[in-house]
Amino acid sequence: MSEETPVIISSRIRLARNLENHVHPLMFPSEQEGYRVIKEVQDVLPNLTLNRLDTMDQQSKMKLVAKHLVSPELVKQPASAVMLNDDETVSVRINEEDNIRIQALGTDLSLKDLYQRASKIDDELDKALDISYDEHLGYLTTCPTNIGTGMRASVMLHLPGLSIMKRMNRIAQTINRFGFTIRGIYGEGSQVYGHIYQVSNQLTLGKTEEAIIDNLTEVVNQIINEEKQIRERLDKHN
Predict the structure, then answer these.
(1) Which DSSP symbol is given to 20?
(2) Residue 238 has what DSSP assignment?
(3) 83 near 49, Cβ under 8 Å?
(4) Burial class (CB in 10 A: 0-12, 13-18, 19+), 57
(5) Cα separation, 95 vs 42, whole angstroms
(6) Which helix (H) or strand (E) holds 216?
(7) For residues 159 and 227, is the Cβ–Cβ distance under 8 A?
(8) In the chain, % of residues over pLDDT 70
(9) Is the pLDDT of residue 189 over 90?
(10) Taking residues 112-126, what's their average pLDDT?
């Protein structure tokens, strides 16, 4: 397969965390609660640049959404922000569904490296802030499906061959049985555009971060191999 038609568009590790001394963002009694969370996180991560979304114009917000640095949901929150490193490969979303969501982005299947980058930020926050954690359940998140590791590992794939041959439903059903899911370009509930799909883990409880990453990598490699085979057949038979 030529380099002009890659299958992997990007990969991502996201860690969801909440603070013991604050309610979840969806339950904030006022915007001031959100601003206090932003200040606490900013003080711990001075090397990242703070971007307050409530001070940005709509075009700037949508640019961040398009780059997958913030979600459409975060933009709607009244007291929300995102902290970015210089090349925007690491971001910390503040006051989305959870108080904190750490994200590391890459352009290949380097999920272990991305996890290490996100984990480094997580360690810094854990040293300075009181993170919500239960000895038996793991990290306590707003959505029960994220409880445990609080981690979502995902890979964005361009799959025109599998789409044209109508194989995506079968693949989705197969990987679903192993705790993985296929979604649209902006994650849960979003539509599929341009044959671009996001493959990610569904299970976060009862598995280690390493096991989730290893299993997802295996699933993605199988999907890539199938896509390459179909592209070759379509190429050969026009």
Answers:
(1) T
(2) -
(3) yes
(4) exposed
(5) 13
(6) helix 209-237
(7) yes
(8) 94
(9) no
(10) 97
User: pLDDT tens across 216-237, in order?
Assistant: 999 999 999 999 999 999 888 8
Task: Output the DSSP codes for 171-212.
Answer: HHHHHHTTTEEEEBTTBTTPPPBTTEEEEEE---SSS-HHHH
What whole-number percentage of the chain has pLDDT above 90? 82
DSSP state of 165: T
Closest CA to 205 of 181, 224, 170, 179: 179
Span 61-85, average pLDDT:
93
Left (φ > 0), alpha (ψ -120 to 50) or beta: where does 155 sit? beta
The two structure tokens encoding residue 160: 């025109």
Q: What pLDDT score does 6 carry?
A: 85
CB 84 within 8 Å of CB 49: yes
